[in-house]
Design a protein that fits this description.
mainly beta; 5-stranded antiparallel beta sheet; disordered N terminus
C-alpha cells in the first residue's frame, strides 16, 4: 500500500497539484480571502432636513459593509462624522464619536443598511451648496477623512439673527390726543415677517402690521413689537424690539382778551388796544392784531402789529379789531386762539359853523342866517340879550322878542364825540323913536 501511495503520488503529482489548487479556490483559499485583502466600507446615503441650517440637527442615514472575517460592524463599533467645506473638497472631524445599536450582519462582505445618526451642523457654518458628510469608524477601521463614502452635496444655510427696531413719527414726548405712528424696521425678517404690537405686557388686539397708529396713549405707556421672522435659518425666529416709553402731557387751553382806550371816537383820534396777560400763552407768545372792514365777515393781519399793544389813528366807522394769539406753551390747544372783538364807532368832525353876518334892526323880530351842517347837528342858543328862537335847529330860525341893544346868538354844530364848532352873530335892535309931533300948524301975521 505504501508503495502504491508513493507511486501514486509520484506519478500523479501534477494532478494532485491541480486538484489542490481547485480545492483551494473552492474552499481553503476562500478563508484566506476572507481573512485579508477585502476592506470594510461605510456609505452615507442621505442627509435629511430641509432646509439644513447652521446649528440645526440633521439625520444622517448610512450603510456599512463588513470586510473580511474579523472586520465586521457591531454595536460596539465607534463612528466619527466628517464634514466637508462648502465646496466638498476637504473634510474635518465634526462632533463626537458615536455608536449605533442595530441588528448588524455578521457575515463577511455583507451590508447593514439604514443606520441613522442625529448630527448637529456647526453653528458657525457659512452658507454653501457643496457640503458633504462622510462617516469613518474604528473596530473595524474605515478612514473617511478624505471623503470616502461621502453623501451627495447638500446646502447649509448660515444662521440669520433677526432683530427689529421701532421708532415713532413724533418722538416719545407728545400731547394728549396726538396721533402717533410707530413703524417697525426688521433685520433678517424674511419676505413676510409677522408682528404683534404691545403696550406694556398686553398684546394690542388687531395690531399685527408693520405700523401701529394710535391717539389714545397715556403717560408712561411702553410700546414694543414682537416679530416672528420667516427668513430661512432665522435664530431665534421670534424677537422683541426696543421699548419706547411715552411721555404724554396734558392739553392746556390758551385764551386772550383785549380792551381799547376808546370805542366811540372822532376820526383821526389815536386809539390804543391792549392785550391782557394771556392764559396759557407760554413764555413768549406770538401776537398778531387783525382788522375787519366788512362787519366781521373777514379779518386781515395788520402789518407790523405784533406786540401786546396796538395804537392807530386811522380807524373808520364800523372797523372791528381783534387779536390772534399763538401760544408757545407745551400742548396748547386750540392754537392759535382769538380775542374778543372791539367794534369802533368813528364820527367825522362837524361842519365849521358860520352864524352869518351881524344884523341891526329896529323891530323886535329878525331872521337868523347860519350855514347848513353837512356833518353834525346845528343848534341856536341865546348867549346874551333877549329874544326867543323859534326853531333852534334851523340855520334860518326866526327870532322874536328882541331886546333893545345887542342880542348875541350862537350857532353850534356838534357831532359827538368830536369837538363842536360854533359861531356868534349879534343882532342889534335900535329903540323905536317917539313919533314926532311938530304941533298944530300956525298962521301968524307977524
Amino acid at each position: 500500500m505504501r508503495k502504491i501511495y508513493v507511486s501514486l503520488l509520484s506519478k500523479k503529482r501534477l494532478s494532485i497539484t491541480k486538484a489542490v489548487g481547485t480545492l483551494c479556490m473552492m474552499a481553503f483559499c476562500f478563508f484566506g480571502i476572507l481573512s485579508s485583502g477585502i476592506a470594510q466600507t461605510i456609505s452615507v446615503t442621505n442627509v435629511a432636513t430641509t432646509p439644513v441650517c447652521a446649528g440645526s440637527n440633521v439625520t444622517i442615514t448610512f450603510d456599512v459593509t463588513n470586510g473580511a472575517i474579523g472586520n465586521e460592524y457591531t454595536n460596539s463599533t465607534i463612528y466619527q462624522v466628517y464634514l466637508s467645506n462648502s465646496s466638498g473638497a476637504s473634510f474635518l472631524v465634526s462632533g463626537s464619536t458615536f455608536s449605533v445599536s442595530a441588528s448588524y450582519s455578521a457575515v463577511p462582505l455583507t451590508s447593514t443598511t439604514g443606520l441613522t445618526h442625529t448630527f448637529t451642523i456647526p453653528a458657525g457654518s457659512s452658507t454653501g451648496a457643496g457640503y458633504k458628510i462622510s462617516i469613518g469608524s474604528s473596530s473595524p477601521a474605515f478612514d473617511a477623512s478624505t471623503g470616502s463614502g461621502a453623501s451627495s452635496a447638500f446646502t447649509i444655510n448660515a444662521q440669520l439673527v433677526p432683530s427689529v427696531n421701532i421708532a415713532s413719527n413724533t418722538g416719545n414726548n407728545i400731547c394728549a390726543g396726538t396721533s402717533v405712528i410707530f413703524t417697525a424696521t426688521p433685520t433678517n425678517g424674511g419676505a413676510t415677517p409677522s408682528y404683534q404690537w404691545y403696550i406694556g405686557p398686553t398684546a394690542i388686539a388687531g395690531e399685527t402690521g408693520v405700523t401701529y397708529t394710535t391717539n389714545a396713549l397715556v403717560n408712561t405707556n411702553q410700546v414694543k413689537v414682537v416679530m416672528t421672522s420667516n427668513a430661512t435659518c432665522a435664530v431665534p425666529a421670534t424677537v422683541t424690539s426696543n421699548v419706547i416709553t411715552m411721555t404724554v402731557n396734558p392739553t392746556v387751553i390758551p385764551s386772550i382778551s383785549i380792551s381799547s382806550s376808546a370805542t366811540n371816537i372822532c376820526a383821526g383820534t389815536s386809539v390804543t388796544f391792549t392785550a391782557a396777560t394771556p392764559n396759557n400763552g407760554g413764555i413768549s407768545p406770538i401776537y398778531q392784531w387783525q382788522i375787519s372792514t366788512d362787519g366781521g365777515v373777514s379779518f386781515t393781519d395788520i402789518a407790523g402789529a405784533n406786540s401786546s399793544t396796538y395804537s392807530t389813528s386811522s380807524l373808520l366807522n364800523g372797523n372791528i379789531i381783534k387779536l390772534k394769539l399763538t401760544s408757545n406753551a407745551n400742548c396748547a390747544s386750540p392754537n392759535p386762539v382769538f380775542s374778543n372783538e372791539v367794534t369802533m364807532t368813528v364820527s367825522q368832525p362837524p361842519t365849521v359853523s358860520n352864524a352869518g353876518s351881524d344884523q341891526s334892526v329896529c323891530a323886535t323880530a329878525a331872521t337868523l342866517a347860519g350855514n347848513t351842517a353837512t356833518a353834525g347837528t346845528g343848534t341856536w342858543t341865546l348867549i346874551s340879550g333877549s329874544g326867543t328862537i323859534s326853531s333852534p335847529n334851523s340855520p334860518t330860525s326866526g327870532i322874536t322878542g328882541l331886546g333893545v341893544g345887542a342880542n348875541t346868538f350862537r350857532w353850534t354844530i356838534a357831532n359827538a364825540p368830536c369837538t363842536a364848532s360854533f359861531d356868534d352873530v349879534i343882532i342889534t335892535r335900535s329903540d323905536i323913536p317917539t313919533v314926532a309931533d311938530a304941533g298944530i300948524d300956525q298962521s301968524v301975521c307977524a
